[in-house]
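Supplementary Methods, section 5.1.

A reviewer requested that the exact input to the structure prediction be made available. We therefore reproduce it here, unchanged from the version used in the analyses.
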Amino acid sequence: MTPIENDYFELSNGEIQVSIHDETSIHLRAITKHDDPVELSSGEVRDLIALLYKLAERAD
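The structure derived from this sequence is encoded token-by-token as follows.
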């Protein structure tokens, strides 16, 4: 997971972008540069889940 800023993160070599806006909504984009679905390893899935959980805590 690469934190770009405090509110913007990239995973899976930039194919997944996650951000939080105004501490109320989480935006998730997952698509390859060829418009294909993103394939994740089990470790990447765990990283994504952990990140989403942390952002959800902030959004509550």
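Residues 16 and 34 are 13 Å apart (CA to CA). These observations are discussed further in the main text.
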